[in-house]
Amino acid sequence: MKKLLILAYDFPPYVSVGGLRPYNWYRYLREFDIEPIVITRQWSNKNGNFLDYIAPGSSDNIIVEKSEYGTIIRTPYKPNLSNRILLNYGEHKFKWFRKAISAYYEFAQFLFPVGPKVEIYKAALEYLKTNKVDAIIASGDPFILFKYAAKIGRKHNTPWIADYRDPWSHNQEYAKSNIQNSWHRHFEKKTVKEAAYITTVSNFVFNKIDALIPGKPFSILPNGYDPEVIDKIASIPQGSEKLQIAFVGTIYEWHPLESFLRTVNSFIISNPNERILINFYGTNASERIKHLTSIDFPELTQHVRITPKMPNDELLAKLAENNVMLLFNYYSYMGTKIFDYLGIQRKMILCYSDDPEAQQLKEKHYNIQESETESKQLQADLIQETNSGNIVKDSNHLIEVLAELHKEFIETGEIACHSKGVENYSRKIQVEQLARIVKLVASNN
Asked: What percent of the chain has pLDDT over 70?
């Protein structure tokens, strides 16, 4: 059995879609003759919000967990000064000082062994003093893990795989200035050229990588749903009291949240007896939603419910109680929540494919550099392929869709979903492909 060292910053129990990808490697790789050793950080999950990302770990010592699936090594985590200030004084105090400290670590971590992620590197070196692995994989973002994997690979003559969940230097989050752009582009080229293989979630992301580092062997391993969790919740029925529409996760500035809520508000004003409930789970925009519903769209106050973050298995059980899943358009990027929506087999509505207000938001805020040769409607393509929902053109079309959904709900007590080919997006299938890649890379070495 080959051994694979996995460097993953986001990992359960931290509630993050980014942590689900390496978790499923850990969960299923042994079934394909690969023993996973995960090195991650300790997560305490005491706050139930964004502060969990910077909260201290549970111990000053490394915690080792062994199970039938493999080994997890959890490293200590101590917040730096910037994060301690944020935890103690809140997000509105000492902003510039905190930004300066964060900027220092963002740049310095690529030159020196400093920063909140370096304990993962140290733990990997310590593990390899007495253990041998056949390959290494680093899951980014954070992309400093790529540099750690490259250094470890050189030191121990071990091939490493760069797994991109998102673009690196092509993502404008890493290119807010010319200096940042040049810095990240330099280290991306320097680091990833040493990788034996590249895996990523879509052709769109790979084309960004290939333009910078051409000629690397690669595979597309899309995100997916966890079949084990989906099997556990398969018998949960849809709610029948109200038409429930669910949204989970991050709301970005280019998402037409206000337009969606305004349209639902108009629908309720025109149909005051309609039974409809919008559920937001684990969103980063709770305060904005509360403001919009209390000030701008007061008719929605009794029709919107906000639930904090929760572990993925609990979240999917809650989602299964809903009738309809809401997606905001990611355009050239697929995102991850669409796969969980597919797994629980609830009808999706995608807002929007061609809405003027949404297009303005995209032009102003969308932070992914699109390609003229790639589809700019990846979610819509998948929904059409799997027959799993409605692609809503604009806010006027949304009114029609809401009316149709509510009519079906009143008549049948549920919303039918006639999706097909969903099993192709099981994460277990993607893990089987990764296992073949690991064996190939190890044998080539």
From this structure: 98
Position 63, amino acid: I
DSSP 225: B
Q: Is 268 helix (H, G, I), strand (E, B) or coil?
A: helix
The average confidence (pLDDT) of the chain is 92
Q: Quick one: which of 278, 280, 248, 237 has its CA closest to 414?
A: 237
Is 0.85 topped by the overall pTM?
yes
Tell me if 392 sits within 8 A of 347, measured CB to CB. no
* Mean local confidence (pLDDT), 357-385: 88
- In angstroms, rounded to a whole number, what is the distance separating the alpha carbons of residues 136 and 125? 12
Q: 421: left (phi > 0), else alpha (psi -120 to 50), else beta?
A: left
Burial 46-68 (b: 16+ CB within 10 A, else e): eeeeeebebbbbeeeebeeeeee
pLDDT above 60: residue 175: no
Output the CA–CA distances (angstroms, integers) from residue 115 to 111, 120, 178, 273, 342, in the order listed: 11, 11, 23, 55, 38
Bridge-based pairing of strands 160-164 and 135-140 is parallel
What does the buried/exposed string (b/e) look like for 251-271 if buried means 16 or more CB atoms within 10 Å of the residue's CB?
Answer: bbebbbbebbbbbbbbbbeee
Q: Nearest to residue 69, comparing CAs of 40, 41, 21, 37?
A: 37
Query: Rounded CA gap, 259 and 305, in Å?
Result: 18
Mean pLDDT of 38-59: 87
Domains and CATH numbers, the chain: 2-79+116-224+427-444 (3.40.50.2000), 227-425 (3.40.50.2000)
Q: What whole-number distance in Å separates Cα of residue 366 and Cα of residue 280?
A: 22
User: Tokens standing for 284?
Assistant: 């980063």
- DSSP for 291-359, please give it: HIIIII-GGGGGGEEEE----HHHHHHHHHT-SEEEEE--TT---SHHHHHHHHT-EEEEE-SS-HHHH
Cβ–Cβ < 8 Å for 21, 165? yes
Residue type, 51: L
Question: φ, ψ for residue 46 (rounded to 5)?
Answer: -95, -20
Average pLDDT over residues 356-376: 85
